[in-house]
Design a protein that fits this description.
Blueprint lengths: L1 E10 L2 E11 L4 E5 L6 H8 L7 E6 L2 E2 L8 E4 L11 H11 L4 H14 L15 H13 L5 E5 L7 H16 L3 E5 L3 H7 L2 E6 L2 E7 H7 L4 E6 L9 E8 L2 E7 L5 H9 L3 E6 L4 H11 L7
Parallel strand pairs: 3-8, 3-9, 6-7, 7-8
Antiparallel strand pairs: 1-2, 1-4, 4-5, 9-10, 11-13, 11-14, 12-13
Helix pairs in contact: 2-3, 2-4
Length: about 300
């Protein structure tokens, strides 16, 4: 859907994007990650044609990005932009018409979304009278109402309680299942693990790692294993990271430099082993590792 080829952006002496190359597959939910100041927002602004790259090109469906493509993009920025004095319904219809919808079509779609997100009572209220989370719901609707092919969400869960966070996550998944490509930028790594299938991590204007999320997590496996046994084990001589008593047995997470085949055989022979798995690292741990130490070589 989106391909960046040698994209560079510089503000004075600050290089925001240093000739980056990114490939965001059609139909994916792509996590665009990086610490503050890494270059994520600069790239998002380029995709939305708020700014232009100094050099390089961004392809949208294998064609250079052009002004007409804005109608096929829905963008929820981190900085909110609703008109506080307008009524919610009026504002939603106004923004929908800017995206090319007729009044009747915009109103029909908006009413459907208001029911779906339990917002029926918002229509006649002014934005200034809404809570932060409720205003965020309104802005979410304005982002998706014109059924864009590409959705870009920058910290979409800001202001939401856990119930509404889960509601919006499910709607993002549903929109993706219906064909939309999603770019998802957030600092909430648990959300990345839950909904993203691809990620790209930018740091200091450079792409550190990009690809399928599962492949990247496998690449960063670090010798962490989880054993579930009938009775609690000492695991003498091994680094035990976590113990958890469950109704199915005792689970311990351990670190081991070598594959613990001898331990597996011993526990199985003693009829103690109920379960065993190598633990995938969390995205947050991978994020910190890459930012602090750089990407892990492919052959390691």
């Amino acid at each position: 859907m989106i391909r960046a080829k040698d994209v560079r952006k510089q503000y004075g002496n600050k290089v925001a994007l240093a000739n980056i190359n990114l490939n965001i597959p059609s139909g994916s939910i792509y996590g665009l990650l990086g610490p503050n100041g890494a270059g994520k927002t600069s790239f998002i602004r380029i995709m939305n044609q708020i700014t232009a790259p100094d050099s390089g090109v961004v392809l949208f469906d294998n064609e250079p990005l052009k002004p007409a493509d804005i109608g096929r993009i829905g963008y929820l920025p981190e900085e909110r932009g609703l008109y506080k004095k307008m009524k919610v319904g009026e504002q939603v219809l106004y923004l929908a018409k800017l995206k090319g919808l007729s009044s009747s079509e915009a109103k029909s779609r908006a009413k459907e979304w208001f029911v779906r997100l339990e917002m029926e009572d918002f229509w006649e209220k002014k934005v200034e009278d809404l809570s932060k989370g409720m205003a965020q719901k309104v802005q979410f609707v304005t982002t998706v109402l014109h059924k864009p092919a590409l959705l870009i969400f920058d910290e979409p869960f800001t202001g939401f309680d856990p119930i509404n966070t889960n509601l919006i996550k499910n709607e993002i998944k549903r929109l993706n299942q219906e064909g939309a490509t999603v770019i998802f930028s957030t600092h909430r790594m648990e959300s990345v693990e839950e909904i993203c299938d691809h990620i790209g991590l930018i740091n200091n204007g450079k792409v550190m790692v990009e690809g399928l999320l599962l492949d990247i997590r496998k690449h960063y496996m670090n010798g962490t294993y989880a054993f579930t046994t009938k009775e609690e084990q000492t695991f003498s001589g091994m680094d035990v990271l976590l113990r958890d008593l469950q109704h199915t047995g005792h689970t311990a997470t351990i670190k081991s430099e070598a594959y613990p085949s001898a331990l597996i055989q011993k526990l199985a022979k003693e009829n103690q082993l109920l379960g065993f798995e190598e633990v995938l690292p969390r995205v947050s741990d991978i994020f910190i590792d890459i930012v602090n130490n750089g990407p892990k070589p492919l052959n390691s």
